[in-house]
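Annotators were shown the component list below and the corresponding predicted structure, then asked to write short factual statements about the assembly.
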Amino acid sequence: MRKFVTDRAKRLLSISCQYQHLHRPLSSSQSRLFSSDPLSSSSSMASPSGSSTSLTLQTINPKVLKCEYAVRGEIVTLAQKLQEELQAKPGSHSFDEILYCNIGNPQSLGQQPITFFREVLALCDHPSILDKSETQGLFSADSIERAWQILDQIPGRATGAYSHSQGIKGLRDTIAAGIEVRDGFPADPNDLFLTDGASPAVHMMMQLLIRSEKDGILCPIPQYPLYSASIALHGGSLVPYYLDEATGWGLEVSDLKKQLEDAKSKGIAVRALVVINPGNPTGQVLAEDNQREIVEFCKQEGIVLLADEVYQENVYVPEKKFHSFKKISRSMGYGEEDLSLVSFQSVSKGYYGECGKRGGYMEVTGFGADIREQIYKVASVNLCSNISGQILSSLVMSPPKVGDESFESYLEERDGILSSLARRAKTLEDAFNSLEGVTCNKAEGAMYLFPRIQLSEKAIKAAEAVKATPDAFYCRRLLNATGIVFVPGSGFGQVSGTWHFRCTILPQEDKIPAIVTRLTDFHKSFMDEYRD
Amino acid sequence: MRKFVTDRAKRLLSISCQYQHLHRPLSSSQSRLFSSDPLSSSSSMASPSGSSTSLTLQTINPKVLKCEYAVRGEIVTLAQKLQEELQAKPGSHSFDEILYCNIGNPQSLGQQPITFFREVLALCDHPSILDKSETQGLFSADSIERAWQILDQIPGRATGAYSHSQGIKGLRDTIAAGIEVRDGFPADPNDLFLTDGASPAVHMMMQLLIRSEKDGILCPIPQYPLYSASIALHGGSLVPYYLDEATGWGLEVSDLKKQLEDAKSKGIAVRALVVINPGNPTGQVLAEDNQREIVEFCKQEGIVLLADEVYQENVYVPEKKFHSFKKISRSMGYGEEDLSLVSFQSVSKGYYGECGKRGGYMEVTGFGADIREQIYKVASVNLCSNISGQILSSLVMSPPKVGDESFESYLEERDGILSSLARRAKTLEDAFNSLEGVTCNKAEGAMYLFPRIQLSEKAIKAAEAVKATPDAFYCRRLLNATGIVFVPGSGFGQVSGTWHFRCTILPQEDKIPAIVTRLTDFHKSFMDEYRD
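Structure shown to annotators:
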C-alpha cells in the first residue's frame, strides 16, 4: 500500500491542486498558480459548415471553458441520471434513493424551515390578509407584528417593487443592528449590500479586483469551488495557500507570506485574501489569535480581506466560538483606515438553511467613497436582489426575542437543528475514521467532513485507465453501488498525491445508520478489490 | 434656435452615442464602436501611503470603471437626496414628493400585484397552513389547488432548497407549456434557464460570447443600458445600429448589414444581435415582416439572436401584436439547425410588474449540446435562482383559466392595469407633443416614452458650463423644479446632436394631470429662460 504523505516538509516540496484539471493532474509545484492563459485552441473564428451558428467550444469565451464547479459537476450529473432511472423503473438499482451529500442544501434532505421566518415571508407576500380575522388563527402574533414592521420599512409597502440597489434601507438598519449585537461594535447600514445569496457578492468583489491574470487572489486549499470558478470567470490567478490537515486544517500565516512573495516574484499582484471561517469543505473554526494574525497580515500587505462567514451559526464544539473578522479587527483597534474588509453572509446556511430563497449580504468596510460608488454602480446594473431574500436576511439577523410569542418554538426549532447537526457530524466523523485507510478531521463547524482516503496503486491505475482522478473514481463507484453522492477532493484542491472527498453532515438522523452501513460495506469491498 | 436634424442622409454622416461619456460627447462617426480598451491611467499598482488598501480608481478593474447604468445614475442619486430632504424637512422644496419616472418599476408607483399570484406565493412560502380550515376563508380555492400542484413538483416539497440549476423541472414544464400556447410551436423545458430576473440571463450570454474587445454585439441605439453595461463589464465592443425615429423607431436590416460590415472591416467579429421587442426605451412593436428579415439576417450571418421579449404582454395599440422570435423563425420553417436564438422573459414587466421578486427565464434554442453544457455550468456556479421567482415565472406563463374561481378577478385586474397603461401612454404622449420643441413617437408597447427635445444654443452652452450633457442638464433642472425624475437620452444612446429623455408611463392615473401641469409649466419657463 502507498504510504501516507504525512511529513510537512515533504508536502511543502510537492504540492499541487488538481481541481481545475480533473482528468489531468498538474505537475507538482508548491507555488503552482492558476492563471487564466487563454486555451491554445480557442482563437479560431471559422464557422463549421452546415451549423446554425459559428459558436463552438473553440469560439466561446475561454474563461467560461476554464471554469469548473465540482459540487454540481459530473458526479452530480450521474446522480441525477440514476435518480431518473429509479423513478422510471423502481428496483433498477441496488438502492432505493439517491442520498445527496454533495451540497449544503439542508431542506432538500428534509430539514424544516423555521416557522416564524416562513410566517413573516408569507404575510409579506400577501399583505392583504394581515387585517383579516382568520389570519390571527393561522399566524403567530409576533409574525403579524413583524410583517407590519417590515412593510412599513418598504416605500409604499411594495414588496413587488425594485428596491434601492443595496437593499431596502429599513432592512439594512435591522441587519446592521444584528451585526452590532453579534460583534459589540458599530455597523453602518450603508456598508451593507444585499444580494441573491452570497455567490453574487463574491462575484462582484472578484469583478472589482481582477483586471487580468496578473492579479492574484489568495485562496485556501482546499477551498469552496465558487472561488476558483469566480476567479477563472474573471480571468485572474488563484494563488493557493495550504491548510494543514495534520493540525486540523490549520492556517499558518507564514504560508500566506510565502505564497504572497512567491506570487510577487512571478509578477502576480495579490489583491485579496479569501478566508472561509468556519471552513468549507474543511469544517475548522479559526482561533481568535489566528484571526488577529490574519488581520495583521492583510493590513501590512495592504490587501483586501474577503471573509466568507456564511457558516457563522454553525459551530458544534464548545471550545470554539465564531468571531467575525470585523469584530477581531475592531477589537485590535483597527478601523476604516486600517483594513479593507468584506464579510459575506447568507440565509442558505446556519440553522435556517434557506438555500432556495437566495438571500445574503456583504458588509463592505475600509474602502474609499469612490470605490464604494463603483460597487454600487455594479449592483445597480442588476437593479436589486429579491425582496423575500432581503426580508429573510433581516430575519436571520434579528430572530424572535425573549417574550415574543414565537420565541420558545423558535428556540426549540433552532437548537433542535443545531444539536442534531452536531450529532450527525460526530457520527459520520467516527464512521469515516473507522474505515480502512481513511482519516477524518473533526467538523468543528460548517456542514461538511473532508476525509482523506489512502488509495492503493491498483485503484489509482484503475482510475487512470478510465481517465478519472482516483478520488473521482472512488466517488463514482460509491454512487453506483450505494446511491450516496460525495464530491471528489480534486474539486476543492488537495495536496498532491493525497485524495479526499467532501460529505455533508445533512442527511436526516434516522438515515445516518443506513448511510454508514452502506458506506462501510462498499468501502470494504472496494479496498478488497483494489488491494495491492 | 437650433434646427432639427431630420435628414436621414445627414444623420448617417454624423452619428455618435454619448451614453458612455455623459459629460464628454464623442467625436462624431457613424461607425463609432464602444471598445473596452483599458483606460490609460489604470496600470499603476502603487499603494497610496497612509491608506488602508492599495485599491484606488486607478487600480480597480477598468471594465467596472467603464460601465455605466443611467437608469440608476446621477439624476436618480440626486432624486434620492431630494427625497431625504423632503422627509427630514417637509416643505423644503416646491413639491411634496419625488415622482420616479426613471425606471419600469410599476409597484413602486402604486400598481397592485395580481391577487392570485400573491396567494400562491404566500401558500408556497408557508405550506403548513394549506390544510387548515381558516385558509379556505383567506385564499381562493384555485390558489390553494395551484400551491399543492407546485409543491408536488418540487422534490420533497422543499421551497427552501436549492433547485436544479436551470430551475425546478415541473415549473419549467409549466412554462414550456405556456410558451407553446403563446406560439403554437413546441417548447422544450430543457431549453429553459430560470434566472433572478432577466438581467443575469443577459450577463450569462454576454459572458459566453465575449472573449475580448474584438468581439462585438450589435445593439440598437437607443438601447436599454443593461446591454452597454454588460458588454462593458465583459470587455466586448458594442456595435451600434440605429433605430429610425422618423419612422417610429424603425429597424432597418440594411443598417444592420452596414454596421456588421463596418465592424468586420475594423477586425470586430460580431457574435450576436440584440433586439428589444417591444422596444425599450423606444416603445415600438416590430412588424412580423421586419422580424422575418431579422431572423434571415441572423441565419445568413451565423450570429446569435438575443431577443429581449420582457415586454411581450405590454402592447397598447390594436394594429400591433407581439410575436416571439421563436414563433417567427419556426413559422419560416427554421429549426434548431438554422438559428441560435435566446429569448429573455421576466416577471418584472407585463401587467404583473413583480420587479422585486426577481424572476425570469431565458429560452435557449439552436445551440449544440456542448455549448448548452457550458451555459449550465455557469448557471450552476450560482446554484439556482430564487424559488419564489421561479414559481412566479410559472404563474405568469400559466395564469388562471376560464372556470377557475380566480379567473374573473384575475381578468379584471389584468385588463384594468393594461388599459390604464394604454391611457397613460396616450395622455403623456399628447402632453409631450404639445410642448414647444418636443416631438414624441407613440408608445405602441413596453412602458416608456422617449421624446425628443430641441434645445437652444443658449441651453447647450449653459449645460457645457456645468459640464453636463444638454439632456442631463434639462432633466436635472426638471427634477429640482418639480420632483419629476426622467433619464437623459444620453444614457440610452441617441443620434449625435439630438437630445431625448426617457419617461415611464407608470405614474398612477390620478397623478398624471398634475405631472403634465408641472412638466408643462417647467418646460415653458425653461424654454423662455434659454431662448436664443
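Statements collected:
1. Residues 407-433 of chain B form the longest helix (27 residues).
2. Chain B touches chain A through 108 residues (CB under 8 Å).
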